[in-house]
Amino acid sequence: MTGVSPFVLGLRETLRARGILTVARFTVGDLLVRVCKSADSLWVVIRREGCGGLALRSAYLPTKFDCRLVHSASRPVPGLRVDSVLGRHVVEFEIGNGGLEQLRMIVRFTPAAPMLMPFMPRDLYPLDSHDDPLGAEGNVEAAQRGLNGGALYFRIDEPAFGNVLYFQNLTALNPYCRATKTKPDGVVGGEWPELGFLLPTPARSGTPPADPLPAGVEVTLSDVILVVRHGAPSDERDSARQFLEMLATAYALLDLPSTEYRDWVGRAEKTLRDLAEAPEATIRHYGHRYVHPYTAAEYPDAMVQASLVRSIHEWGKWRGSPPQLEKDFEAGFAKFYDSKLKSLRRYLPNVGDDKDKDAVDSWYLYHPLLNLAALALDGDETARALFLKSVDYGIKAAHHFNYRWPIQYKITDFTVIKQAATDGRGQTDVGGIYAWVMLQAFELTDDKRFLDEARAAIDAAIGLKFNLNYQANLTAWGAAACMRLWRITDRAVYLEQSYVYLASFFHNCQLWESEIELAVHYRNFLGATCLQDAPYMAMYECFESFAAFQRYLDDSGPELDPAAKMLVAEYCRFALDRAWFYYPDALPPEAISEKQREHNGHINRKLSFPLEDLYADGQKAGQVGQEIYGAGAAFVFAVRAFHNIEGASFRLYCDHFVSTMERVNDRCVAVALHGGERSTASLSLVRLPRQRPHGTTVMTSDGTPVKPQRRAPDRVDYRVPANGRILVSWA
Asked: Among the four residues 84, 97, 147, 595, which has the most C-beta atoms within 10 Å?
């Protein structure tokens, strides 16, 4: 034992001496739940016969208090009202047993006087078969990182209680955090056996806090969901699958934020115009046009150039005519190629002396190849030739680092510049994007060595568990690569390994909607922080993950775990809404930082280029800069969410991916969606310019008409099953 807190010893003694009074009892599946009162706390003690259990603190009250049961016709389990000189606590319970045992506990508090909140101990303690928190043995697999979702995932091995997901609904804490000027940063976690939620309280470094909870105003202090599974996982892949299943169970209990229709087609048109016309967007070298990574700042970059060429290409294909800008940007791309190394470089040969032209982040070597391969697979012979003469150097780097890449190295001789991040890890998910690039090469050439490389990279990542995610979009591409490998090889291990990538990705998501400070002006729900230790969400990682997840779902089938499918689809649904707020014209001026990171230019609110950074704790957006390199987002969202239908006077918009669209007859299409079994999708029929609206009908596959949710001159909105087949017809 390395150390133990007084609260652990206090609970141990209380349970040993039977110093608690049972107030209520109920069951959740095979779990026996007792609501108990001790001298200073209200407890929920959860046990499985002979297998130990959990002690969950409802309220910490270091003063005399009275409690009584409160019965409600709408709830099968009675709640509690607790009165003390501090004020009134109200505790409510919800239970469920849809295959996994679920217990939700909501604690609300009304202060009797303006209340300066003191330190509160954590609320969750594993117990052995003798109710001893020091006797239970287990392992914490994942805890909250920064301002990401308030999830704690662990198992109790001895006794064999099973797997537990503790999920704190941080959205419910917004009024508390606003009143106390606190934020829920890293509040869910702990050290065994003292786990769970640490109520955020003001710092006390010599100065007393000055922001009390107002008297007489009820606030939520905790909204916790416990999901319990009897059997411990057999390996990391099973553990990841169980995490996704349990997270989806908790997710289904949340009151989800609303989403809105966003005109990504209009945004894409404006973005293309700004890329073509704004002097801050491009610069000329060697007689060609290159893109500034940030507004009027930074040197041309191979990753930036390739990303925009590919996204503009997709937009032109969707629109039916390639923009001239695609050709302009692609024309100079070969200048990034180093014929001596036989590799693409990050910068052009004339990059300034203030840059180390030989330094490359590990993922930067592969990302331009991903986009070149996508262009090649769509028939671009120039891209094909450049990809094929560059890809072998990428393989050479993978072999040199044995598929475990550092943060940054010299491209000339692989000398490591930076081995690891502050947590000791290198770029742990580069193997994912590398595997995807190798699978693209295999599709282009049918050369089995590329398939072998993809398998080797994914195999090398086995064992990283929840430490797999380094950069969100790379992790998403890793999931897509696993799914594609499963399709090619029919080896179940790759389908299962995709769950490890997904579990690490969703562990890094903000599974709550912040209303703290300036965050009231934008959305953050289900946004992934760009890096494993980053304080902000970033647009590039957002739309790239969106694109990768489309490929993941397209390659999937009925074998895909329903929880994984639902969570992926929900991430993409919220991304279509949330990403709108990266654009400076969607934010009030006061929400945008006046200063940007050195060398990253400035922000021009008139340009349709996204800000790089949005913060869940309500800091000013755009502190890093306005990323022209993320301008492809509008094209990516537009071509995947809006669908042209020949002969119709409208486009079809859907916030879920369309898996198939079949023509039933001249005036009817059947649309199948990639969504969760119990989820719903937003579907809109958006009138085309200069077209007169005609009578339209939307039906489910059994012929049941779907009533419009909203009618407007430019579109009609519907809510439809997210995993069903929908018929859309017009007069």
From this structure: 147
